[in-house]
C-alpha cells in the first residue's frame, strides 16, 4: 500500500493558495488529509466522509504549480491527487477548457480585442477576472532590444525543432520568429515544428487524461518523423510537460527524449551578450514554478542585466483550468505574486508563456509591464 502524507507541514511554506488563505484545509497537507481516504489505494472510497462536491471545491483551490511535491520528503503531488479527482468527477468546465485549448486557439487574439471594447463599469463583478485574462491576450507593442546576443561557438547543422506552445503560436507569434532567428544564428538546422500541438500539461491538470494522451502521442510522432532531433522550448510550463513524456516511452527512447528535450536558452551556448542603451535601470525576473531549480533563462539574462532580481512572490496563479474554474482565486494569486516585485521595477521578464499572460492581466493596475525574455533580445547584427 502506498504511504500517504505524514502531515509534516513543509508544504505550508511553499503553497501559494495557503499563502492567501492561511487555512490548513486548503494547504496541500490539508487536502491530502481530506482526500486520501477517497483513493482506493488508501481505503474504501464507499466509506469516505467527504462528498465529491466537496472534492470539486478543493480541486478549485490548486494551481498545479508543483511546489509542494518538490519540498515533500515523499515527493507526493497534491496536484496529481486533484487531477485524479477531476478525472473521476467530470464537470462542464473541463470540457470547455479542453475546447478552449485544443480548438479555439486561433480565436484567442480576437477574444482579447473584443474584451478591450468592454467598459469596465459595465462588466459584472463576477466577470472582471475573466475579462482581465482575455485582455492579456492582446500583445504589447514591440520594444527596442535591451540585449544583443551572438554566438562565440556554433553548432553547425545540428537539427533542432522548436516546440512553441499554444500561447506563442496563437497570441505571440513574434516569439516563435525570434526563437528561430536565435537558433539559426547559433548554426542550428531549424526544422518545421508546425505539426506540434498542445503539450498536454494543462489538459492533465484539468483531468482530461484521454485528451492529454492524444496530444502527447501526436507530438511524439512528429518528433520521430523528423528523425528525433533536439527539441527546444521557450516556455517553462511546456518544457515541464514535455519532460514527463519520458514516463510513457520505452527505456531507450525515454533516455533519448530526456537528452534531446531542452530549454531554448540552454541551446544558446557560449553567448556574447551586450546591454543596449534601451536596457532599463531596474527590471525584475519572475521565476516560473515549472523551472524549479533548473532554470536556464535567469543565468543567461543576468550576463547582460546583472541587476536583474527575482521577485519574492510564489506562483503567479496561471493554474490552467483554475482560470476557468476559479478565476477570482487565479487573479488574487497573480496580485500577490506581483506584490513581490520591487516598486521601482516597472519591467518584469519571465520565461514562461503562461506566466506572461497571467501577470499581464494584473500588471497595468500596478503600472508595470510583463514580457517574455524573447521580447527584449536581438541577434547581434554584426555577428
Main features:
iron-sulfur; metal-binding; Rossmann fold; 11 strands; alpha/beta; Cys_rich_dom; 4Fe-4S; 383 residues
Task: Provide an overview of this structure.
Residues 1-25 form the 4Fe-4S ferredoxin-type domain. Keywords: 4Fe-4S, Iron, Iron-sulfur, Metal-binding, Repeat. Helices cover 43% and strands 11% of the residues. By secondary structure, it is of the alpha/beta class. Helix 3 crosses helix 5 and helix 7 (108-116) packs across helix 8. It is globular, with a radius of gyration of 21 Å. The N and C termini lie far apart (60 Å).
The H/E string reads HHHHHHHHEEHHEHHEHHEHEEHEHHEHEE
Tally of helical runs: 19
Question: How many strands appear in the DSSP assignment?
Answer: 11
Helix content: 40-55%
Instruction: Note the overall shape.
Output: globular
Question: Mind summarizing the main beta sheet?
Answer: 4 strands, parallel
User: Overall pLDDT, averaged?
Assistant: 91
Structural class: alpha/beta
Amino acid at each position: 500500500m502506498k504511504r500517504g502524507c505524514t502531515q509534516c507541514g513543509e508544504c505550508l511554506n511553499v503553497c501559494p493558495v495557503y499563502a492567501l488563505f492561511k487555512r490548513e484545509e486548503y494547504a496541500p497537507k490539508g487536502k491530502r488529509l481530506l482526500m486520501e481516504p477517497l483513493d482506493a489505494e488508501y481505503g474504501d472510497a464507499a466509506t469516505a466522509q467527504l462528498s465529491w462536491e466537496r472534492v470539486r471545491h478543493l480541486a478549485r483551490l490548486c494551481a498545479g504549480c508543483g511546489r509542494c511535491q518538490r519540498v515533500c520528503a515523499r515527493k507526493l503531488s497534491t496536484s496529481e491527487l486533484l487531477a485524479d479527482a477531476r478525472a473521476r468527477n467530470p464537470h462542464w468546465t473541463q470540457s470547455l477548457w479542453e475546447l478552449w485549448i485544443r480548438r479555439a486557439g486561433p480565436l484567442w487574439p480576437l477574444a482579447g480585442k473584443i474584451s478591450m471594447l468592454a467598459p469596465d463599469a459595465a462588466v459584472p463583478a463576477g466577470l472582471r477576472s475573466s475579462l482581465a485574462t482575455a485582455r492579456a491576450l492582446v500583445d504589447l507593442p514591440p520594444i527596442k532590444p535591451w540585449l544583443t546576443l551572438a554566438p562565440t561557438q556554433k553548432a553547425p547543422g545540428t537539427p533542432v525543432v522548436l516546440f512553441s506552445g499554444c500561447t506563442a503560436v496563437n497570441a505571440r507569434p513574434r516569439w516563435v520568429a525570434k526563437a528561430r532567428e536565435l537558433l539559426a544564428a547559433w548554426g542550428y538546422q531549424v526544422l518545421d515544428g508546425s505539426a506540434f500541438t498542445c503539450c498536454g500539461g494543462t489538459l492533465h491538470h484539468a483531468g482530461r487524461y484521454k485528451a492529454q494522451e492524444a496530444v502527447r502521442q501526436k507530438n511524439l510522432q512528429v518528433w520521430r518523423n523528423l528523425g528525433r532531433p533536439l527539441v527546444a522550448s521557450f516556455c517553462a510550463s511546456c518544457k515541464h510537460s514535455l519532460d514527463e513524456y519520458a514516463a510513457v516511452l520505452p527505456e531507450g527512447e525515454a533516455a533519448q527524449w530526456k537528452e534531446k528535450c531542452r530549454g531554448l536558452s540552454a541551446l544558446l551556448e557560449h553567448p556574447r551578450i551586450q546591454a543596449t542603451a534601451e536596457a532599463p535601470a531596474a527590471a525584475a525576473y519572475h521565476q516560473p514554478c515549472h523551472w524549479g531549480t533548473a532554470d536556464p533563462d535567469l543565468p543567461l539574462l543576468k550576463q547582460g542585466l546583472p541587476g536583474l532580481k527575482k521577485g519574492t512572490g510564489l506562483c503567479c496563479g496561471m493554474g490552467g483550468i483554475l482560470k476557468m474554474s476559479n478565476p477570482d482565486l487565479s487573479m488574487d494569486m497573480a496580485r500577490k505574486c506581483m506584490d513581490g516585485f520591487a516598486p521601482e521595477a516597472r519591467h518584469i521578464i519571465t520565461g514562461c508563456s503562461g506566466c506572461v499572460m497571467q501577470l499581464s492581466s494584473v500588471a497595468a493596475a500596478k503600472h508595470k509591464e510583463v514580457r517574455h525574455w524573447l521580447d527584449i533580445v536581438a541577434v547581434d547584427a554584426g555577428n
